[in-house]
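Incident review: delayed structure delivery

Summary: a single-chain prediction request sat in the queue longer than the usual turnaround. Root cause was a stuck worker, restarted by the on-call engineer. No data loss occurred. The affected request and its eventual output are reproduced below so the record is complete for anyone auditing the incident later.

Affected input:
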Amino acid sequence: MFRLMLKMAWKNSFARPARTVLLIIMIAVSMSMMLGIQGLYDGMALNIADKNKRSDSGDVSIFAQEYRINKDIKFRIKNALEIKKELQAMNGVKAVALRINADGLASTARKSSFAQIRGIDLAEEELFGKFSAFLKEGEIRLDKKSAIIGIELAKTLKVGIGSKVIFSTQDTRGEINSVALKISAVIQTTNIILDSSTVFVDLKKLRTFLGLKKEEATQISVMCEDQAVIEDLKIKYQALDVKSFFELQPMMQMMEEMMLIFNSITFFIVMSVVFVGIFGVMYVSVLDRIREFGIMLGIGMQYRYIRMQIFLEAIFIGAIGYIGGALIGLFLLMYLREYGLDFSSFADALEMWGYEAVIYGTIKVSYFTTTFLAIISASVLSVLIPLRKIKKLNPIEVIKADK
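Output delivered after worker restart:
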């Protein structure tokens, strides 16, 4: 009997081919657009998080106690090199970068701005987060007098490649010292803090300038393979301030939660459209065949077989629509992941909030699994009201009634 119901459901699904095909197209297009939007939302959040990790904190950063509160180099890690070696030997640690940060004043002949000077090892940063990928203009190099500057700070100071900048800050002895720097490159990390306030110089040079010892640093950033490594570091270095990426960047956590809300809203709207579409088609289909169902009940067919047939019809339509939407959505997501969506017309506004002018999407298996379950659920739920109408039929009255 099930095989018979299966055949009848398949044939009846396309009894009105134009209506069924339009519904399938509607489901496929709605689903593919939803997948594209989900991919873009998640891609935006992942891209910003990735660049923030690679340019600054990594998956976890280690500071001396009180450093993040006071921003004073006297609160520095005294045995940073030793800790770095320990970290590199740990399982699950992919990369480690030492940094020295100091707040001060960046000045030119015409402008000045509060800023941060950061000492980095270019080779180390390249391994840690592909630092050269942030280059906007110029050449990535840090020799004796050169410096790299964030794009927004360059705009504030009105400097470019070859311009001179004087940076003044307090050293370990409490004295105010200044250093003349020549801009060799402008970078854009989409990390708002770095882009708007940071001057990068050679780690060894800054260490000498501030009077720090070779084994000292203010920040140790670590790239990890999983969350378990972060928890291990917090236990191992309890005397230090060990913070995960989301603890250092609560805005990123909030952004991911917002993207989840946006995706949920989009998902709900699209699934509502799918539900209404399938419901409308199935309800009209049942009304068109009400005499047929009455005769089937009148000759003794049990209601549960009719119910099975209606369910199968709805599932067939929903499944075909899903397959079409999944294929279109997959190609759309692959395109967005490879080429992105160009918002160059809004580049300035996007960069202000840490977004790139070209936004790339991402692909997750969960997009397709959750959508499949939702479409099948919508298909099944959409026939409940038509089934109630069939269940209340009086076969004799239906058969006697005029068509």
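Verification: The chain has a mean pLDDT of 86.
Action items: add queue-age alerting; document worker restart procedure.
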